[in-house]
Amino acid sequence: MVHLQLRDKLAILSDAAKYDASCASSGTTKRHSADGKGLGSTESMGICHAYAPDGRCISLLKILMTNFCMYDCVYCVNRVSSNVQRARFTPGEVVWLTLEFYRRNYIEGLFLSSGIIKSPDETMGDMVRIARDLRLTHHFRGYIHLKTIPDASPDLIEQAGLFADRLSVNIELPSDASVARLAPQKSPQSIRKSMADLKMKIAEHGEPTMVTKKTKRFTPAGQSTQMIVGADASTDADVLARSASLYSGYGLKRVYYSAFSPIPDSSNALPLIKPPLMREHRLYQADWLTRFYGFSVQEIIAAQPEGMLDLAIDPKLSWALANRDKFPIDVNKASREILLRVPGFGTKTVGRILSSRRNKTLRYDDLVRIGATMAHAKPFIACADWTPGQSLDREGLKQRFMPPPKQLSLF
Questions:
Q1: Cβ contact 88:9 at 8 Å
Q2: E strands, 105-253, in order
Q3: Domain spans in the chain, listed from the N-terminal domain onward
Q4: Are the CB atoms for 256 and 225 separated by under 8 Å?
Q5: For residue 348, what is the enclosing H or E element?
Q6: How far is CA 230 from the centre of its chain?
Q7: How far is the CA of 309 from the CAs of 135, 153, 180, 255, in angstroms?
Q8: Facing residues of 269 across strands?
Q9: Which of 65, 253, 344, 398 fits a disulfide with 222 by CB distance 3.0 to 4.6 angstroms?
Q10: Any bridge partners for residue 172, and if so which?
């Protein structure tokens, strides 16, 4: 057996972790070591590799503990039948890497996932050991996100929640039928049970104790999940409907979408064309609309053929173009719910509009100063010195918002 150097393991296992998309550290409690006690922070800025939902640029050491795996999921590059180079960190090596990377200001926290070796409990036990050692032995106060193993014992999952900021259980695919076909060793029922158990534990630890009247620290950033998109025939409507049920049923903080990439090194790879990353991007945008803008999945998908989002323009603009009869709206009179549906208006922009119009009648330049993206909003709004005229009736309105055509390269 070839013994790999730590640098080689890092190269292999950081590359193997690139398919894990759950790497934003927003939502946890604020902790720092400015008082000289402990090490790390959930607030600092560093060499950043991901954007949190609140707009912060964050950096995480994102690795697999190992890419050895006893499962043979068809869509996974690390499946047991895949011909890839294997490596495995010891718990001590992961702890050392996290601390050394932090001391060099490379990272703000750790995102740790793993293939399943020997048994779910064996793997989960090592991950818990890493988080515990970081917190209790080295007093690490930075962000920790652990990808949990669905079939691991509830006791191990509970221990993980005591040390991690966020836990996630992968739902894998948009439908149970797809999981049964493409990941036959995994059980959708077991996955959902793990998510339900974690939801109950978060609620349980969120109740103040009778003695201290304080809540216990347990996964303060909540739980999330990841869904592979493009490995089966599920439409965007199917994906978004499944996400909506997960948010409502398990109290998730985030559903992450990961575009499936066929693995060319094995005859078992799915014979699918790689979907554009733009599909993944549009799903995130649609997901955001359902969570923060008051849209339903049915509204977003209604005007789309075959239940697929328009890749050329964002889903909010697509909805507005399909519902032109609802526009233009007067920004000085419209409700918050209506303003949130205007292309180019974000939640912060709408808040500023509502605040500003209490004191003055808003004009076009006021909207520009407030931060509205007027290139998108102009045809859909009216204000004191602006009306869109007949622009909403133009046949080529959609083309105005599409990127200009580019000459394809010959090489």
A1: yes
A2: 109-113, 143-147, 166-168, 223-229
A3: 6-176+183-214, 324-401
A4: yes
A5: helix 347-356
A6: 17
A7: 43, 39, 26, 17
A8: none
A9: 253
A10: 227
Cβ neighbours, 10 Å, residue 120:
18
Closest CA to 47 of 64, 29, 62, 34: 62
Dihedral sign, CA of 192, 195, 201, 204?
A: negative
Residues 6+ apart with CB under 8 A from 107: 46, 47, 59, 60, 61, 98, 101, 142
Main-chain phi, psi angles of 296, to 5 degrees: -100, 160
Phi and psi for 61 in degrees, rounded to 5?
A: -80, 105
Query: Looking at the predicted structure, is the pLDDT value of residue 283 above 90?
Result: yes
Query: Which helix (H) or strand (E) covers residue 238, if one does?
Result: helix 236-250
Residue position matching structure tokens 């008051």: 294
Query: Residue 211 has what pLDDT?
Result: 62
DSSP 74-132: TT-TTSTT------B--HHHHHHHHHHHHHTTS-SEEEEE----S-HHHHHHHHHHHHH
Q: How far apart are CA 346 and CA 367, in angstroms?
A: 12
> Model-level pTM?
0.86
Phi, psi of 348 (to 5 degrees): -65, -40
**pLDDT, tens digit (0-9, with 9 covering 90-100), for 141-195:** 988 999 999 889 999 999 999 999 999 999 999 999 999 999 999 999 999 999 9
Contacts of 91 (CB under 8 A, 6+ apart): 65, 126, 129, 130, 133
Q: Is the peptide bond before 328 cis (omega within 30 degrees of 0)?
A: yes
d(CA 236, CA 229): 9
Percent of the chain with pLDDT over 90: 64
Angle at alpha carbon of residue 121, lines to 116 and 125, rounded to 5°: 95
User: What phi and psi, each to the nearest 5 degrees, are found at residue 257?
Assistant: -110, 135
Q: Which two tokens stand for residue 194?
A: 């793990």
Q: What whole-number distance in Å separates Cα of residue 312 and Cα of residue 160? A: 42
Query: Given CA atoms 75, 171, 285, 329 in this order, what sign does their dihedral have?
Result: positive
* Tokens of residue 384, six digits: 């004191």
